[in-house]
Records
---
Amino acid sequence: MNAPSEFLDYGPDALILAGLNGRNWGLGDYIARGGYEALKKILAEKVAPANVIAEVKKSGLRGRGGAGFPTGLKWSFMPQQYSGDKYLVCNSDEGEPGTFKDRDILRYNPHILIEGMAIAAYAMGCKRGYNYVHGEIWDTYERCEEALEEAYQAGLLGDNILGSGFSFHLYNCHGYGAYICGEETALLESLEGKKGMPRFKPPFPASVGMYGKPTTINNTETFAAVPWIIRKGGEAFLNLGRPNNGGTKIFSVTGDVERPGNFEVKLGLPFASLLDMAGGMRGGHKLKACIPGGSSMPVLPADIMMATDMDYDSIAKAGSMLGSGAVIIMDETRCMVRSLLRLSYFYFEESCGQCTPCREGTGWLWRVVNRIEHGQGRNEDLDLLISVSDNIAGRTICALGDAAALPVKSFIKHFRDEFQYHIDHKQCLVPAYV
Amino acid sequence: MCRALRTGSLVNRLIMLSSDALKRIDREIAKYPPEHRQSAVIAALAIAQDEHAWLSTETMDFVAHYLGMPPIAVYEVATFYEMFDTEPTGKYKLTICTNLPCALSSAAQAAAHLKQKLGIDFGETTADGLFTLKEGECFGACGDAPVVLVNNKRMCSWMKPEQLDGLIAELSAEAKR
Ligand SMILES: Cc1cc2nc3c(=O)[nH]c(=O)nc-3n(C[C@H](O)[C@H](O)[C@H](O)COP(=O)(O)O)c2cc1C
Ligand code: FES
């Protein structure tokens, strides 16, 4: 694994990424950090599955994959009395531009995911689980395979785990380059060996999921938070963050900062402190804009961002979303038209083509932004962009449509003058952008 | 095409892959319930592509036969997922992520450097058949920008022009051996 200058200081409040140096990923090291204690505890004490779910509910843990849905509540949707197969799926298909936190969990602390999934499987009565890893991170996938082998060898996975009578078989599998497969029902299609085209909901996966069976899908970081919650209690986790925003969250910081990287902090940390952890603005430049939750979320200008705390509710109040926790920082030399152009191209490229508003609309958005960027913008284009966005959002099977539309609307809302300047003067307001 | 569409025809039954590749595919199939061999199709195609460098219709037909799938269902998968190549590529396929977070850490310059150095654009292959250049979308490794993937599997991080030159030199030398 290449590691010229990997930065492994995830911050003083890290739980999931605490004590990692890039080499201590193995089973022995994980156990020395208190690993598998939570799983052993619930198996030894035969804790009722409902109580495990109750503890997770109490923790205020919300899904770390993008939508922020309360995890305990999601788990409670799984039919407890159902006697057939039930599946557990981990969404490690991290492909939201700006996000690279799951990769660090998977390669530097893979057993925390295995333990979290085993506990979740116990709580929901799942006998089989799949960890779907993003196709581009091959060495990380191989690391996951090694860790899984260690866990099976140690009797922590498989039949009759630690003599408890509880069985759980976990497998790793991988995608091969399709952003849409991060969407949970597209991921299920992919797991079934098909094109990753999202399914219509309802029915939700808890009723009809993998192979048509009840299935729960969570993000890697969501599962990784579970062992700590079981060990220290839901209340303790909740108290780390804020009401309705429990625990720590890993933020992937990229862009114009001195030290891009992952930082695991208590939810509710002021944005300015996170920026400091990332070494501050690169080369002493000024903050212009920030996308606080991955490329699918609305962009916010510097003044709003600097007054915002990093938790689900605060960022929503500021007009964006915490999303996947990818914080993309842009300084005053960046052109907002050019930035939006690259994002629009991405959604156009990655639309699966199933829904007409998304298939046609994403291409339309990209072409219009493209002509504005290249000095051929028309006066009516900004209204056109808003109108096309409005006609995509909320009219598609999955949220990729919204993901394409939200950035467009927010870029125009906050930086309209820059777009107008491009149209009026056929050139850029910030020509220094490279 | 016609011939390929006939499931069970002779070509489907010709063993297109090494026994080692078949062993690896069997391992993938075993991860799923026996009635769901199709679930292993992405893994099987990836293994097949590693062996043949790209996925010809014959190779895909073989995978279809092996997994008990209609060939068309395999073509659908092979053409949906970006990392599969259904046409020949250069010996080394270099994919560089140019999405916004990477672009903010000089991925665009890195891409321009590669294009200039190899004398090709995205989607093209050098005349000597050594290098194919592709534009990629987020690899989930944005903190390491610029990031280049070599033949899908090897990720190279922090690829400034100097490191890119080193990579090209290394691969060119390897090809000569
Ligand atoms: C286009 C699109 C891409 C997504 N990509 C991811 C992803 O890469 N990783 C992820 O965990 N969730 C992703 N999601 C969200 C998932 O659909 C799902 O909400 C999530 O995996 C649920 O896990 P959580 O509740 O633990 O967050 C994506 C959603 C959409 C619409
Ligand atoms: S944006 Fe390039 S790897 Fe994520």
---
Amino acid sequence: MRITKSKLKEVYHKIDNKITGIITRLGSSEEKIVISHPEILVRDDRSLENLFGAARRYDVEDFFVLHKEKEKRDLSIGYRLLLKSYQGSRDGAMSIAKKIYKLRYDR
Amino acid sequence: MKKHIIVDGQIFQTLARHRGMGRYSEYLLSSIISSGSYESATIILSENNRGELTSSEEKLLFKHANVVHLNLFDSSETNVLDAEVHNKIVLNEYIENLNFKSIEIDYLLLAPFQEPLVSVFPDEVSKFLVFYDLIPYLYHEQYIHKMPFEKYLSHYKILFEADKLLAISESVKSDICLYLGVSSQKVEAIHGAAVRSNTPARPISNFDLPKKFILMPTGDDPRKNNAKGVEGFELFNSKNDNSYQLIITSNIHFSEKVKLQNLSNNLIFTGNLDEAELDWLYDKSDVVMFVSESEGLGLPVLEAVGAGSKVVCSSIDVFKEISNNAFYYCDETNPISISNALSSAVNKKLSSAQESEYKRILDYYDWPKTATRAIDAMKDNQLAHSNQKKRIAVFTPRPDGISAIGKVVSETHPSMLKYFDIDYFYEEGPANISTRPNYLQYISNYYPAANFSVESYADYDAVFYHIGNSEYHLQSIANGLYLPGYVIVHDTNISDAYRVMAERDVISRARADLESEITKKGGYTLSNHLATIVTNQIGIITHSDYALNAVREISTEVYSQKVNLPTNTPTIVKQRDYKSLSFGLAGIIADIKGTEVIESLVKNPSNNKHSFLLFGYNYSTDSTIKRLNSYSNVMVETNVTDLDFVKKMKKLDVFVNYRMKYQGETSLSTLEAMRQGVVVIVRNVGWYAELPDDAVVKVESIEDVADKINELVNNPQILKDISKKAVHYIQKHHTHEEYARGMLNLINSSNKTTTSENLKINKMLLNHKVKSMSDLLKGRKL
């Protein structure tokens, strides 16, 4: 069976995703954040003004405050270095492989 | 005072110089130079010559021009972006060192999409490029795996940077306007002419020319429609005792050859021929068959005309544009039609009418005249550049998804560039369907909407949120709810979007319920779930008076204005005779959007003679589609590409768009039907009611639709009048240019008049003064 360029690419990305996925997972120190939302607090009379106020307070808290916290998932320094060195060697190897392929087939 | 022309001639350094585009470039360039319209002509070549152009060939080719070799990069060694930056610097340096000013220079790109070249414009010159066709874009499903498609789309940057595009036919011009949203003023059709060899016609060596044959100049490309052509030929040949042979030119791949040979035993493959040999074949041909699905210009047709051969060709715009009556036209999708056209063409001499038409064609499609048209177009370049562009962020559904809003955003991009530097923040859609290639991601800053934040907000003069009632707008709504910007309202009922936000945990269920309570408490009768986002903005755009009233019902403090939803009009509009009618329903096929109406029409026996076509993205149930398909005169096609959509829309005479339930929306399908001269029947409600009475047909109830149709069927003149007025209306009132200007006006006007509360927060955000939740809530009545 002929292995096509796109098939090779697919396999490459599959393996690459696996490796980077494992490093990222092992390196993430924080627990998976459970998404939570702020409570809706409306003043007693539930007037339109108060409803708008409650909505505004909720929106700012949910999208500005909580959303920001949800974003934080940094890698610890050791794993970050490991990921960088993997990416560097991967790109180096790929560029050599591309050059060999070019010399071999694209003359 | 004569200007100077500088031409990017790198195409002559590639193998493509021997093919259609290269030959076209050579003839055009030589005619421009010999016209004497320019003070000087300079050809830019790359120092990094790929060996396809020897110095002696170079001297011969450009004997009347200066040739300059610069250190230009291509994409075989460098990535496109780096090559673009490098080449621009090199060209700018070169232009700076010239003895004349950059404003005296017309800079022409001959082959903007030729791989691996990376052609760019230097700054400050007048910028022009020759545009051959939009075929890879339109047939993207076929081409995406056949060529470096990302690189191809990256080149669209220069397409939009050019001051004027020189299209090789009116059809190409129409496509550019229709599919890319480029203004027709920015495109000029210059046409072209037949390409003949510089040497006399020469017989093909070791080739026995059959006594009776049809010539099929073609290529190994699905759009060339080779299989249907061969099938048509075979039908014709069987009626003529198999006495004809079909001569097929060009290198055809082995597997394709086998496929064609399975359809006919009377094929002769010549392989690639040089021009003198091809000229010889044309000269010897009685009939030339060219049944391509799509062409930029159709050089084989012009070459056949030049040789005095009869032409059997597909009935597509580009060939009809050459002549409406000189050829034997066929439906390229139907072998019987191809066979009939061949039968009509053989054993006949050209009629005197055809002969005089051939003379007219050859007179018009001539290289010196093509050059004159190109030079005139370049002289006529009056496009002003805006120096002070506003930097804006635009939240948008993915342009390649099924959302009409993504399509509008993509098509408005060329007009927006005049006034804005744009960063796009895109939202993923529901289905993994690619309706059109997404070039925005390669030619502009393009980020996931989820990446937007308070920090990014400060980078922009304005943030635009396209808001609609689908899962394409969740991030737009979320960001619009806490960061004041400019909302573009596409639906006045966004309750479904809120529902999905709650389902996907973007907001809590209680928050969605609260918005519902606000709608009720506020007594907002024209909108649903729209209030909080509207009241948090600096400015609002609506596409109808209905939606404008809905917004003003919520708030009169927030500045709001109406701007018409834009769509471009084709420069070639189909002429209809209304002898037999074709009815349609297009866009998103959903039960609220009128499938019932079509069904009730189909069930009426008096409509048996008419055909009904339903096409678009399917949101109906399988059983609905199955049921509709079971009627003999109904055809349903789901999940169509842009090209299919436009082609099918063009086939219609009447488009029924009766909304069972109106939700404050505008319908792009309606506008797209009107621009093609299709008569649209709409329900007299909301935005539809605001359309001019003489440009659409308005009905009050479902029962009225059938009555109106009967009236129209019996009065083709009414159809003609409405069709004409519809095209005129769209051309005049729904332009992308107006839309972009509307957005600019919104920023300028609302900054003076809108609610001080939202403006104050905007200023704080821009000055990086929002550090905590309370900063964002300051001044609000909570």
---
Amino acid sequence: MTLLKEKNYGTPKVTSDNTVTGYIDGIEISVPEGTSIMRAASMVGIDIPSLCASDNLDAFGSCRLCIVDFEGRKGFGYPSSCTSPLNNGMKVITKNNHLESLRKDLLEMYISDHPLDCNTCSSDGDCDLQNQADNHDLLKNNHLLPSKYTFDDSCNHLGADVDSSNPYFNFDTEKCIVCSRCVRACNEVQGTFALSLESRGFESKIKPGISENFFDSECVSCGACVQACPTGSLIEKSVVEKGMPNETVLTTCAYCGVGCSFKAEVKNNDVVRMVPYKDGKANKGHSCIKGRFAWGYAKHQDRIMKPMIRDKITDDWKEVEWEEAIQFTAKRFKDVQSQYGINSIGGITSARTTNEEAYIVQKLIRTAFGNNNVDTCARVCHSPTGYGLKQTFGASAGTQHFESVQSADVIVVIGANPTVGHPVFASQMKKRIRQGAKLIVIDPRKTDIVESPHIKADFHLPILPGSNVPLINAFSHVAVVENLIDHDYIKNRCEEAAFNDWVEFIKDNSNSPEAAEKPTGVKADIIRKAARLYALGDKSAIYYGLGVTEHSQGSTMVMGMANLAMATGNVGFIGAGVNPLRGQNNVQGSCDMGSFPHELPGYRPIEDDIARSVFEKKWNVEIQKEPGLRSVNMFDAAVGGKFKGIYVQGEDFVQSEPNTQHIEAAFQAMECVVIQDLFLTETANFAHVFFPATSFLEKDGTFTNAERRINRVRPVMKPLTGKHEWEITQELAKAMGYEMNFKSSEEILEEIAELTPTFTGVSFKKLDELGSVQWPCNESAPLGTPIMHVDEFVRGKGQFMITDYVPTTEVANRKFPLLLTTGRNLVQYNVGTQTRRTHNNLWANEDVLEIHPADASARGIDSNSLVLLRSRKGETTLKAIVTEKIPAGVVYTTFHNPETGANVVTTENSDWATNCPEYKVTAVEIEPANHRSKWQEKRKIDRNQLEQIINT
Amino acid sequence: MTEAIKIFIPNETSANSVGANLLHQIINKINNDESIKIIRNGSWGAFWLEPFIEIEKDGVRQGVSYRNIDLSHLNTIEEFFLDFESRNPFDINDIDFIKKQNRIVFSRIGNEDPLNIEYYKNTNGYQSLSTAFEIGPQKTINLIKESGLTGRGGAAFPTGIKMQTVFDQDSSLKYLACNADEGDGGTFSDRLIMESDPFALIEGMTIAAYAVGASKGYIYLRSEYPLAKDYLLKAINIASDNHYLGNNIQGSDFNFEIELRIGAGSYVCGEETAMMESIEGRRGLVRSKPPIPAITGLFKKPTLINNVVTLATIPPLLLKDQSNFSKIGSNKSVGTMPFQLSGNIKNGGLIETKFDITLNEIVEDFGSGTQSGEPIHAIQIGGPLGIYLSSTMLNTSLTIESLQELKGSVGHGGIIVFDNSVNMAEQAKFAMEFCVKESCGKCTPCRIGSVRGVEIIERLQKHKTSKEDAILLHDLCETLESTSLCAMGGMTPNPIRSIIKFFPNELIEK
């Protein structure tokens, strides 16, 4: 059993139009001009010794171990091969007696200020200094030999403090060799610039701040420094506790839509640490605090391991065996159907489970349930993306790969907070911005991306919640009226008639920046300048999130952005595009798997007879022709008494849906609520059946990230619950009378590939070969499709859509004069089901309300005080922070904690086309409070009682 | 009508350190006569005379050294004049120390108020700028190439070639950075230019910037030179007011402005790449080369980096009768070098002469031997990383080539004299201690090796005959020289090896 260690080429890859040819120890090699000697040597299998070089960081030249000689060298000093480019005709010598004796001497210097016993070091076996010492005869019996440069009273750093403030890793100064890899990783890879060195010379000390420790500093705990550290100085606490892992399982993170590839490093079927995988095409060896460190929830004591059932939701839970639970469920569903009709039950596929697990739930519903009442959480986040991009481009998925941002000249971020929601992608974006790309941020809040070390947005438009459409129309207006549009592109690639109609519409003064001033609160002049910047960019890219979609005109806004991109010729090539930042690890996948009431896998409409017959034939059933209920409709129908049963795979509606009281009423009205999850969620309070689910560490399947990239999820351990989630669904289908006999998740993927044209080339085998693949992947694109709409749009010609501004009915009024918008923080993930069960709580364990000083002082509210947040729907209390990050008139909070239950105040308003809830605009009032609201008090009592029951 | 009487009291750091300001205070106080002008001039660079007060009367100018003389008892200016006359005043241009020098670059220091731009212009100031504008950038660079001028900061790189490289870069934005970090102990040539002839530096920078196409210049000045900062800021303002800096200099379409940046006590920030890091607001760490600053320098733009004296040499070089400079010397050692003599010496100060002069001439003819009167034991040349020569090597020529043969370097021209009370083992230890204190810490040999070097030498001081420690020191020096990132670590072995070679048994006993 061995750990997978990726090759380190020493310095980053270089691209150049020119090639140079040189010789390394006599071996000829040709490389792009600018490639370092170290990298060239590595490419021919010669690994020049080094401690401070890493191929994800610019060359630094600190350790001096990598010195080389070359023919014609002048002077006394040898150059470092990491900082020296290979020149044409250069004849390099990497090893000779003199160089070796110098390297040995340098190592003796390092060792003279380093602990000697490798046996007692947690990094034993994973330490570059240990390896180099070994290579140079300075290691014996796993002890470093005492250095010739050590005397009785020698100065050293032995016995120095250990900073263990961060819950996930330690920083031990004693073992630091001041190679600065951590500082460089924080700067160049992560872009947070949290680390530096204090003092100079021998006194040099790595510091996370002037006087702070790691936890209190600006460090965001991404783990890049820990990964970069060549010794045991920065090391995961889990390695210290559990010992060095000895086996690697390549898998994919289960948090957000970046879908980072990880090496799960394992010992005795237990994860010791998660290390980002360098060859991961989405993350390229980087990670964030969640994927890197917050995986402990998989073995948290709250995890439910056995199925539970109860007759009424007021009864106590009863643990039973799988057989009994499944039979109970099947019978109840059948009873409900016979009483209330075939359409009275439905299900939800999870955006957190694998493609295979989502597919099989959707199949269960269409076969064993016999209806189309299936939906997924994309309903409440990116369904407008689905609608809007389908209308305009013909395909409802992101157009680019993440790599594309490295070629963008102008980057627009609308309604997204990438440094917290997609941190690894944000780091990639920041890298490009530091190189000189321009940045426009459209967000009521001054998010991190607006201004942070070495990053300053060229324009920040703090528009008021609900004013997206006039803003984007104004951008397009400027582009058209000032003739900044790409006529050739439009002529060749877009439908003429629709375009002409659109031009007539957009150039009207009602769509001008002047007209947009009032609804947005941003000056026309600024809107104009920002619009010009986007339109004139060679390659302009739009990245957007839920600040676009979660509005009553979410779909309109998506189409508005698509219009703008088409008009300026910015779709179909690298560096451009319209990019939805999909949130969940597999929301793209669950959408692809047909988890929609109106669509079959591969986005084929249910009414399409041909498509339907393909499935009917394979599944041997008749599939209903009419679209089923959306989740939102299911809840309405439940309240109305018509919808009575639901199978919920991995989603906590009661916490994440808007208008909590309505949702609770809906669940309460149902007679068969089945929850399949890891923990007892808020929704589980209303459940009759609880099927324990598996974490990603137990799953075997695929996730599809925001790039349409299908990645493998490989199991580290067998399901702790005894059953894979797809096995549960399969047995339920069988118990309900439909035969399903998959023997593995691989077989499920085979069926998916068989039935879905965009997936025909996808298989476990191909993914093992290629690592990952972006769909469409079939005969015409056997290696996948990084960028879509390259020669033509999926629908043929792009279609401009008219995007009239219809203001939301949710407006600030005398009773509720402030507008609430919601978002996320870095350390908690969505409703916090997983992250609240990890040490991430140490950074943020409660939702906090941000309020502008003007609004706060008018209400007598101080920072860090308790406030009451009220809307026409409900109220809650939470802590307030006074800040100028938001404009006056706007308040903001997160929704990670059920104790706050932010959604008790959000409303039933939703997108006209897709019913995506308008989370981002709620009229509210804020007042000082001195006690929790009634429902919060009650919840606390109920929760305590419940926990007592579970833990006895 | 008789001309006004002028009293010259130097305002210069060395002179002030021995009471020039106090004297000025006293004399200024007792002077009630408006027709008597008191002028704060620069220093002549003959430090043993400071504070050197001169009086110009009826066209005759003479001076007296007022070192250790208390004038607080004086009540009237006439009393001062009497005191002055009683001390045998003389014309400083008549003394050997000044007469035997070849003051081309330092021709103005001491003469006048350094901020008197009229004086500057009347002594060929800003003529060379006109010449440069006339002949254009490339021809200006050609003249400098032909002159044979090499950098006076310490590395002696051919100035014209460096300028050509910057000129050849295709960039709309280029910078000029003047390295005024003069960190070597016992050196003051940069300081004397900045305090006593600042317009020479400004004109030199303007011509160099014009030649290479730079629109912005930085002077990186060490924090330990507050008086130089004062003079430079004032001189920059005066130059700007007179259209010698800013937009459309002297009616041309050349724009150039100079910004002063102050260091914070780091010797290594005198290394050009660390200096750039510091100017950019970062920690003063050394950068690897390639890329060289001429191609990728400040803020990633092509940058011409030159020392103060190098830049101040450009105006005299371009004067129509500039043949003076290039006719002196040969190979790399062309023109004059401003040697700076200090330490245990009677007559210390600035000595501008040809390179091809012996150490003996400097130390005995100019310096008049040790201050203590005891025999010379050692002389360190070229700064803290320079070699020590013994008393048997006084006929060594001070050309760049000659010192290179001894594994030494002229460097910035510092010459420090020690008498026989010096402990050479302590000096060897000092070389390592200096490296410990000033190391930027980036590379291993310098960061750790220097600390170990101090420890090894301390052991040798206890046991001179220790063979193991001698070998360790040898190995350490080898590693420092062969693997260091920059000359800080790379040259630290030089003084130590010179002590082992030229002062046998004083550090290591065989």
